[in-house]
Amino acid sequence: MDSESTIPPRRRVPKLGHKKSMFGCQRCRARRVKCNEEKPVCYNCKRHGLPCNYDRDTFAKKVSPKPAATQVPTPNDAEENEPPESRSRRLLEARLMLQYTTDTGGSIAADGRTLGFFSQLIPKLAFRSDALMYSMYCLAALNISRVYGDSELEGGAENVANRYFSMAVREHNKEIFQVNKDTADIVCLTSCLMRVTALIQLQNRSREPYTPPWHWLALTRSSTATFVEAYQQIGPDPDSIAFQLIRGTSHLHDKGKLPQRGDIERLQHLMDRSKELSIDEEWDAEIQDTYERTLTFICNAMKLSDAEGASSNLFRMLLLFPMLADERYIKLVKEGSSRALVILAHFFAMLSRFRNIWWVGNLGIDEMHAIANVLPEEWQYLLAWPLDKIKLWNPDIQIRRDSKGSSVQSFQTPRE
Known about the structure:
- The structure is a single chain.
- By secondary structure, the protein is mainly α.
- It has a two-stranded antiparallel ribbon.
- The protein has helices at residues 26-31, 43-48, 78-81, 87-107, 112-125, 130-148, 157-177, 184-203, 214-234, 241-248, 275-278, 285-308, 312-324, 327-334, 338-351, 363-374, 384-393; strands at residues 397-401, 407-411.
- A hairpin with a 5-residue loop joins strand 1 and strand 2.
- It is globular, with a radius of gyration of 24 Å.
- It contains 17 helices and 2 strands.
């Protein structure tokens, strides 16, 4: 008998049924296994008791498929794009430091309580952290671009900002991996500066065709979750800046998540499940809970807006929204759910109250109108409140309807 006939055929090893983890840790990518991208230590590394190193970061994912003025190269390109030590670099960074300490730092504080952190403490701590220093330079360059024009810095102020943001991301990854009680404040403040940068990136993006800003929501939420998890491992320190920032907003969230369902009577109509609106709409108990908790937060912000107007408390609360957004809600925004976009339009309408702040600008107005322009006709009536409030809070903007019922914005010419 032929001996070869007794050898059973080799079985093929089935391919793994998961997608490649583009932003997973080094070890998972090297082993070609799925990484859950949990930080500071992923599930696989935690299970095996091994060090976990992230050399790529989701901050570098593009906000939209079309290039925007402040989108950045990936962190892997950061070392190649880092300018060499030279007199011109020293002069540039001296100019950026001056801009930050005299103007930028004070302008990015949400209220007087945090003014000292951003205008005075960050420049001091930056001498201990390249990530914090580069984040400062990035925001200072963007501030220069807004105040003096892009040509104020050689090579373009926004290009300078892109370069330093990429460098900041690279260094921030290292610091997150090595976070300890002595560096927790630095990691927290760096994350704060990066969230401001992300908001500016969203401000400048292309909206034709419109892509819901789910990347911004996901990246902002991810940066917050990363720090909170690392900080919980270290333990709270009442004297730390990070603890004070977290404690100062503890009444607005439930341990870093949206609060449980509360009074949503004011926006109960946004939960309308009439046949006309619910056809083909994905729905289950989890989705309903996600919407109700999101609406609870929005309703609380509306109450605060009614009581205090465009106050620092309202501004701080609105800045928390993308930090607390539920993963399921972000997924619904990504899928272009009409209901999720209507709720998001209410958030952006309130944000329009702060368009005089340079790093917010017309973001709220532009996003709200972009949502209105893509929303199906049967959903348009649910935008009555945000459209009315934008007209009330921004009287220099005229809103008209096109033939399809969508909103179109134009600016009045200021009178002499």
